[in-house]
């Protein structure tokens, strides 16, 4: 199957995810600067989530730039990734409204971990199924970056259960690691 339909579907799902996140934002109840204080945690969590969705969208684009064709297994692996990304609006709203509560922040971390695993699974499926152009494999720093991200996400979950802001700090650190997108091979 041609990869274009899968890319278009993924782009559409990601656009809807961002739309859902922005529709969850509530405006302040007043017009004074201090009226922003109650919505600031939600806005900051939205910003972080927007960056994460953007990181996945950019890296998905780079990944599929190397792909020639997809099959049913690749489509299911892509849906698996999109499922976890589609939960980002839910955990964004929850952790944004409860930034100092352990369970919402830990669940935000669980979803980020599963997104990361989903992306690695998709990448591996495409590789093993011979869907990519022949060329060099990922550089070792990319594999280390993926592993480091998953380990940090896994660490953030118990950290958030112990002290929610510590888990949130790890989420920010991992996002900063990925601001430079994966380079096409």
TrEMBL record:
Membrane topology term: Multi-pass membrane protein
UniProt keywords, alphabetically: Ion channel, Ion transport, Membrane, Potassium, Potassium channel, Potassium transport, Transmembrane, Transmembrane helix, Transport
Signal peptide: none
Key word Transport present: yes
Main location group: membrane
Compartments, as annotated in UniProt: Membrane
Reaction it catalyzes: K(+)(in) = K(+)(out)
InterPro entries, A to Z: TMEM175-like (IPR010617)
Xref: Pfam families: TMEM175
Superkingdom as given in the UniProt entry: Bacteria
Keyword Ion transport recorded: yes
Transmembrane segments: 43-64, 76-96, 102-122, 151-179
Family the entry assigns: Belongs to the TMEM175 family.
Protein name per its UniProtKB record: DUF1211 domain-containing protein
């Amino acid at each position: 199957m041609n990869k274009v339909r899968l890319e278009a579907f993924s782009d559409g799902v990601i656009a809807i995810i961002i739309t859902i996140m922005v529709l969850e934002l509530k405006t302040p109840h007043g017009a004074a600067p201090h009226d922003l204080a109650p919505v600031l945690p939600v806005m900051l969590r939205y910003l972080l989530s927007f960056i994460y969705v953007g990181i996945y969208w950019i890296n998905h684009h780079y990944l599929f730039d190397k792909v020639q064709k997809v099959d049913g297994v690749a489509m299911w692996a892509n849906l698996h990734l999109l499922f976890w990304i589609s939960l980002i609006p839910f955990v964004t709203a929850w952790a944004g409204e409860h930034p100092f509560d352990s369970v919402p922040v830990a669940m935000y971390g669980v979803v980020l971990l599963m997104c990361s695993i989903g992306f690695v699974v998709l990448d591996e499926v495409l590789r093993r199924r011979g869907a990519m152009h022949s060329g060099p494999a990922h550089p070792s720093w990319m594999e280390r970056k993926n592993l480091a991200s998953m380990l940090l996400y896994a660490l953030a979950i118990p950290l958030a259960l112990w002290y929610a802001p510590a888990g949130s700090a790890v989420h920010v650190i991992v996002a900063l690691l990925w601001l430079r997108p994966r380079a096409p091979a």
